[in-house]
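Task card 7
Instruction: Convert sequence to structure tokens.
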Amino acid sequence: MHDTGNFMKQLLRRGCAAVLLCSLFGAASTATQTGKVTNLPLPRFVSMKASEGNVRRGPSLTHRIDWVFKRRDMPLRITAEHGHWRRVEDRDGIGGWVHYSLLSGVRTVIVEQDMLTLHQRPDREAPVSAALELGVIARLGKCDPGWCQLRSGGYRGWAPKEKLWGVGANEIRD
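Output:
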């Protein structure tokens, strides 16, 4: 005969292990999610190609326009795909569905700190080449684990990645 208490403890341990494994595999699958249309990673960053773009409640022209993005080169995060439509969100998490023709793969970021200094090298002690105001949109260049190279208004330099929106925290760019 089995001891009912030990049997229940074993069953509970196995159940907990199964739940843990399922949650780990579930987390791994969301980290490597890809779009069903493009097969590109989701979420991913893009920018507004157009100077104006309607943001709709759903992925078609029949859906209501909730608002209009009016900033060319604004970085956006794509979170879903449906046919020729992409669900996007801005740095405030506000978004909706935009036609893919309004988007560009050119990468940009928004400066999240007022008077963010650009350095000549990815080093806080390196000489400063410029300072960017809060909300400035800059072109994104190379990124290492902590710094990204930016271009804006004829200036170029490196800025700490955590002061930018439009680039992933673990993203490396060559």
